Amino acid sequence: MQLSHFQRDQDRRSGARHAADRTGGSTKTPGLVDGFGRRFQYLRLSVTEVCNFRCTYCLPDGYQKTAAPSFLTVGEIARLVETFATLGVEKVRLTGGEPSVRRDIGEIIRQVRATPGVGKVAITTNGWNLARRIDDWSAGGLTNLNVSVDSLEPDAFHRITGHDRLAAVMAGLDRALELDVPSVKINAVLLKSAAGAAQFARFAEFVRDRPVAVRFIELMRTGDNADYFDAQHVGGEVLRSWLEAGGWTPRVRDRDDGPAVEYVHPDYAGRMGLIAPYGAGFCDGCNRLRVTARGKLRLCLFGEGGLDLRDLLTGDGDRAALHARIVGALGGKAAGHRLAEGLTGDMQRLAQLGG
Ligand code: SAM
Ligand code: SF4
Asked: Which ligand is closest in space to the CA of residue 57?
C-alpha cells in the first residue's frame, strides 16, 4: 500500500529536531534541521514591502500601501539575527520590496555583519541607488550583492521596470566590482518575450571579462500575476540548451549555494546560471528560512500565513522563548512547494514577502 504525501510528510516531520553536531566530544554549532533532514543556515530577511519600481511581473501598478507600514526596526533585526545565528544561521540576505528604500539600510548591513556567527551579509536590490550607496555598504561588510537586471537593452529595461535607469544600475554594479565586493550577481527573470539567443549572448558578453554570475530565474506564478504568467512563462530548457551548445558546463556547488545551477566557460570570467523552481527536486536542497518585514517566520515562499515572532523581538523579549518558537516551527516545513499544481500559497507578489 502506498503512503499518501500527507502521511509521508507527517512521518518525516515527527523526526524534526533541533540538532547539535558533536565533533570530538565538544558541541559545535547547534543547527536547524527539518523533518526531511534539510539544514537551514541561510536566512532571507525582508526589511520592507515598499518598492519604487513597477516590474511587470511583480508590482505592475507600483507599491500600494495596504496597511500601516510598520517594518522591523534595526533593534528588532539585531535581536532576530542574533537568535538565528545562535541556531546556526551563517548567511543573511536582506531583501524586500526594495531594501534600499530604507534610509537605515547601511546601518542594518553593519549590524547584521557584526553579529557573531554571521559570515555573509547579502542584499538583493533593483540597483536604483546602488552607485551612491555601495561604498557605504561595502565598508559596512556586505559580502554578496545581487542586482536585478532583466535586460541589458535600455528600452526593454525601462518597459519591464517602469524606470529608464539601466545605465545608473550598471554603474553601481561596476563600482561594486571596483570595490571587490566578494560576490556580485545579476538576477534576470526569464520572460518569453525576451528569452533567446540574442539575450543570452548579450549577458554572456557582459560577463566575458567580469567576475559576475548572471542567473536567470524562471518566472513564478503568484496570486496576482496569473495572466502574465500564462503569457510570459518559459521553461529554463531554452537557456540550458543554449549554454550546452556553446560549451558552458555546470560548476560544482558550494554548501550555501541557493537553488541556482551555474555554468562556467574557459573563455569567460563570469558565470551563467539558471534557477528553475518548476524543475524536479527544486525543494530537496532547500537551505533557507524567511522572515517578513513585519516579523513573521515563513517556512516557504509559497506557503500560507507565518509565525509571528515580533512580540519576542523587543529589548526585553524572552530570548529562550524566541529560540524555542523558531525551533518548534520547523517541524511544520513541508517537503516542497506546490507550484506545479498551480498552488501559490497566500503570496500575491514576491515584493510582499521578499523574493
Ligand atoms: N526589489 C529587489 C529586487 O528586485 O532585486 C528585491 C526583491 S525582488 C522581489 C527579488 C527578486 O525576485 C528579483 O530578482 C525579482 O526579479 C524576482 N522576482 C519577483 N517576482 C518574480 C516572479 N514572479 N518570478 C520570478 N522572479 C521574481
Ligand atoms: Fe520592486 Fe523587486 Fe518587485 Fe521589481 S521585483 S517591483 S524591484 S520588489
From this structure: 1
